[in-house]
Design brief:
It is a single chain. The chain is α/β, with parallel strands linked by helices. 31% of the residues lie in helices and 26% in strands. Strands 15-17-18-13-12-19-20 form a seven-stranded mixed sheet, sandwiched between helices. The longest helix has 25 residues. The radius of gyration is 30 Å and the shape is globular. The chain starts with 5 loop residues before the first strand and ends in a 7-residue tail after the last strand. Keywords: Oxidoreductase. It holds the Pfam family MaoC_dehydratas. Belongs to the aldehyde dehydrogenase family. Belongs to the enoyl-CoA hydratase/isomerase family. It comes from Saccharopolyspora oryzae.
């Protein structure tokens, strides 16, 4: 059987030795061999830094996002092939979709985030401008730029597609090349995934590499610009994080480790209620999806003390319907574990758990399987442990990484919180309840030990993605035992791959560096109204100044009658004068904004297609009848849309009175057409 090849230095590398055999989790047959012997780890990292990084740096966030979308679409066309190979890892079709479709979904998710929440530029501006002096000539701004190293991604065996893609997507969007190292047991599936990704021809050279086998001396060559994202056991994560090179170079190291996640049934959920059924269904699902080999699976199920018998009976009834066997066979709901070694590890952990409880369903030494050999394949039955004394340490310390969960009772909300926290750091916890007060007490009490908390009830059940489903927009990670790291989380995951730098400068220089107009920078007032310019012809700083317009008492009264806004400050002179903020009747703030629009708008058809938003509106100084207002509108940020016939322009609007005082400030968002000859 041929050994899996690594993809390094722009080419596929065959190992210089036969390698270790990898086996089909269902049949025991050899699938492939694996070894990284002969791979020059230093050269692979150098290739990523010298080829991949610069190639990505030439692309804007929007261009990278577009490539992620194209890559996701390409992989969708090949997912049936990935499903078929996934079955050899012991995964059912449902398991495979969770892994494959979930991973592709992360690519789509980050593509959308990049296009909607990041600029069409190579620098990300983080937060607002900070004034550092009274005169406005000295400002501060945080900017984020990609690290100039490689994102080394070490993945676990349980998600050979989702695992690499959920790390690759934010790194790629940030502009940092990836080096993927899959876990050996299921590396043949990740290998095929990377073959497809490279074969798509979409990715810049050096932006993606693959190491099949051990990391060898890879860590010896890490620099301060590289970063490591690790998924796996807490013990291995701790060992790698303590590597002397990692410590000496302050290498960013993110760990997402297995954890003792819990699910808590609320005291309001009586047998027969929707929440009771949801709790039991979710418990069984988390025990059997991927044969319980999920870092987010429910390991501890906490129920009100008086409901233990009810939950045991309901869970057993569901578990008895679970058919174990060949994932390709009809009716099979749970496949095999990833390997025979993994099965033995689960059995050892279960033995420790049974020191504190009793097995109420399943048999670690016997399982009926469909269309398979129970001994040659890594099969186990789903096993439910009952522990009536939740103060026993084993359920809070021992994790059986397979189809195993432990039921424990709690007395009240405070007790449930205490038990949840005994996991010493979890990726996820869930609370199944229709009682908002109970949910609040448990969530806020347990949040410091959890990376994610799900509140599940009949109101959200149809849309809920479930306890064990990390989502691209939310952080995936947890404190303590769970590794102390965070992955994904939308743009947070992108920024993890970037350096945040505080830039101090004058307004004009800050505008030049960030590509965004800053108050105090020069304005460009031309004879051509900015609304007459196509997107390519606009420049940051292009400005229109319009006015003045006198605001009359008749205007205020008409606006009040026309809109129905008869608030006393606009209609009652005596009451308005008694208000400590006013010296009499004042114009409506929205009247001021409306008049400002009438001043700056160019009425004829042109490149401006639509006004689609107004943000950051503040009314700073009252406008009184008789005041004259002038509006200054400046192009603040110009964002072309890749593949679209238009882009977005954000305008800074400052409305001032006859004394030069700002009465209103806000941003206007417009869609502006590209020139017909440049539309993509």
């Amino acid at each position: 059987m041929a050994a899996l090849r690594s993809y390094v230095n722009g080419d596929w590398h065959a190992p210089v030795e036969d390698g270790v055999p990898l086996h089909d989790a269902v049949t025991g047959e050899e699938v492939a061999r694996i070894s990284s012997a002969g791979v020059d780890m230093a050269a692979a990292l150098a290739h990523g830094r010298e080829r991949g990084g610069p190639a990505l740096a030439e692309l804007t966030f929007h261009q990278r996002a577009a490539l992620l979308k194209s890559l996701a679409s390409y992989l969708l066309e090949h997912r049936e092939e990935l499903y078929a190979l996934s079955a050899r890892t012991g995964a059912t079709l449902g398991d495979s979709k969770f892994d494959v479709d979930g991973g592709i979904g992360v690519l789509f998710g980050y593509s959308s985030k990049g296009r909607r929440e990041m600029p069409n530029d190579t620098v990300y501006v983080d937060g607002a401008v900070e004034p550092l002096g009274k005169g406005g000539t000295f400002l501060g701004q945080h900017v984020c730029t990609p690290l100039s190293g490689v994102a080394v991604q070490i993945n676990a065996f349980n998600f050979p597609v989702w695992g690499p893609l959920e790390k690759f997507a934010p790194a790629f969007l940030a502009g940092v090349p990836s080096l993927i190292k899959p876990a050996s047991q299921t590396a043949y599936l990740t290998h095929r995934l990377v073959e497809l990704m490279i074969g798509s021809g979409l990715l810049p050279e050096g932006s993606l590499q693959l190491i099949c086998g051990s990391v060898g001396d890879l860590f010896e060559h890490l620099t301060d610009q590289d970063l490591v994202s690790f998924t796996g056991s807490a013990a291995t994560g701790q060992r790698l994080r303590a590597h002397p090179v990692v410590a000496a170079n302050s290498v960013r190291f993110n760990v997402e480790a297995d954890s003792l996640n819990c699910s808590i049934l609320g005291p309001d959920a009586e047998p027969g209620s929707a929440e009771f059924d949801l709790f039991v269904k979710q418990l069984v699902t988390e025990m059997t999806v991927k044969a319980g080999q999920k870092c987010t699976a429910i390991r501890r199920a906490l129920v009100p003390a008086g409901r233990m018998d009810d939950v045991v009976a309901a869970a057993k009834a569901r578990l008895e319907k679970v058919v174990v066997g060949n994932p390709n066979s009809s009716g099979v709901r749970m496949g095999a574990l990833a390997s025979l070694e993994q099965r033995e590890e689960v059995r050892r952990s279960l033995k420790a758990l049974l020191e504190a409880g009793t097995l109420v369903h399943g048999d670690p030494d016997h399982v009926e399987v469909v269309d398979a050999d129970a001994e040659r394949g890594a099969f186990l039955s789903p096993m439910l442990v009952r522990c009536d004394d939740p103060d026993q340490p084993q359920p809070h310390e021992v994790e059986a990484f397979g189809p195993v969960s432990t039921l424990m009772p709690y007395e009240n909300a405070a007790h449930a919180v205490d038990l949840a926290r005994r996991g010493k750091g979890s990726l996820v916890g869930s609370v199944v309840t229709a009682d908002p007060a109970f949910a609040r007490e448990v969530v806020l009490g347990a949040a410091s030990r959890h990376g994610r908390m799900l509140v599940l009830n009949s109101d959200n059940a149809k849309e809920s993605t479930g306890h064990g489903s990390p989502l691209p927009a939310l952080v995936h990670g947890g404190p303590g035992r769970a590794g102390g790291g965070e992955e994904m989380g939308g743009i947070r995951g992108v920024l993890h791959h970037m350096q945040r730098t505080a830039v101090q400068a004058d307004p004009a220089t800050l505008t030049a560096i960030t590509g965004q107009w800053v108050t105090g920078s020069p304005r460009n007032i031309t004879d051509v109204h900015p609304f007459r310019k196509h997107l390519e012809d606009l420049r940051v700083g292009d400005t229109v100044v319009a006015g003045p317009r006198r605001v009359t008492l008749e205007d205020v009264e008409h606006f009040a009658e026309f809109t129905g806004d008869t608030f006393y400050a606009h209609t009652d002179e005596e009451a308005a004068s008694a208000n400590p903020f006013f010296d009499g009747r004042v114009a409506h703030g929205y009247l001021v904004v409306s008049f400002a629009a009438g001043l700056f708008v160019d009425p004829d058809p042109g490149p401006v297609l639509a006004n689609y938003g107004l943000e950051n509106l503040r009314f700073l100084t009252p406008t009184y009848p008789g005041d004259e207002i002038t509006v200054t509108m400046t192009a603040k940020r110009i964002t072309p849309r890749v593949g679209a016939e238009h882009g977005e322009v954000r305008w800074d609007v400052d409305v001032t009175n006859q004394d030069g005082d700002s009465v209103a400030k806000y941003d206007v968002l417009t869609l502006v057409a590209k020139r017909p000859d440049t539309q993509e």
